[in-house]
Amino acid sequence: MSQTIALALSPGVPLFELAGPCGIFGVDRSDLTGTDWYRFIVCGPPAAAVDQWFTATTPYTYDDLAAADTVIVPACHDAALTPDPDLVEAIRDASSRGARIASICTGAFVLAAAGVLDGRTATTHWLHARTLAERHPLVTVDPDPLYIDHGDVLTSAGKSAGIDLCLHLVRTDYGARVANDVARRLVSAPHREGNQRQYVDPVTLPPTSDDLRETLDWAIAHLDRPITVDELARRAHVSARTLHRQFHRRMGTNPLEWLNTQRVRRAQHLLEVSDHTIDRIAEESGFGSAITLRRHMHSALGTTPDTYRRTFGRRDARRTQHA
After folding, report:
1. Which own/partner contact pairs does 189-197 have at CB distance under 8 Å and 24+ positions apart?
2. Would the pLDDT of 322 be above 60?
3. pTM beyond cutoff 0.70
4. How far apart are CA 221 and CA 315, in angstroms?
5. What does the alpha-carbon distance between residue 140 and residue 30 come to, in Å, rounded to a whole number?
6. What confidence tens digit (pLDDT) does each residue in 179-234 have?
7. I need a surface site. Which of 59, 184, 234, 237 has the fewest CB within 10 A?
8. What CATH fold (topology level) applies to the domain 4-185?
């Protein structure tokens, strides 16, 4: 039986925070998984207002939310960031049952009021991070990450970061390939860099000059080669120093870190879809050896190639012999 994801509806809830989860979880994607998809329900009081635009009609109440496997709480609706007491109680009940609880933007105030963030690090929209920290001193508030995942409790930053969080949940449940396919259908980036460790999949190139874009495309097509920063600079028709400046300005990183990230992503893809040995995957992704691949995957993702394959690899590819 597919797991139930419940989206919390409180009076006046912002429309954007509802639309993202509905578009990601509320559309049957079983054609991508080959098995099942989520059972998605929206839970709230009768005739609850959605922003100033609509009135919601749903047969599901907070009792149904408390019984769900995963609960997603969108942003609070009022300027005082005062959570609905009935919703807070439902979140408390869901958490005590062992449900996975996630918040979008100021939905973190609901989770904090329910006590599920006590002793944890959480994030919310940067504009409200100080208020969250002042109201709930047992919560360590970090305003920098797009989202933070503790496994059973997840929090995300502002509106679009909620989409990143939802795609992360899909990635956790069904693997990076399915999450990437969902993102592609939504015409959304499959991954945005954050300060937290997370599984990521294929690269999305930022808008940039033709020379640099062509250079990045070339590098991705030749990751198995021993590419150097000087070679990238020559292909982009700039000096190595200028290339570093362009990378920092446009991508927030340096060329070598960007290159290693693409190599990790190539390795992820091969671990998911192929039965290649770890040594061969290391060679095809440009790391040269299984030892180097393991070091970079652990640094970037907090996991090993073998564990990643067991989690996200095709069933027929999991029989591979690991080097």
Report:
1. 191/164, 191/167, 192/146, 192/161, 192/164, 193/252, 193/253, 194/145, 194/146, 194/147, 194/164, 195/142, 195/144, 195/145, 195/146, 196/145, 196/146, 196/147, 196/148, 196/149, 197/300, 197/301, 197/302
2. no
3. no
4. 27
5. 38
6. 888 887 876 655 554 333 333 333 444 444 456 778 888 998 899 998 999 999 99
7. 59
8. Rossmann fold (3.40.50)
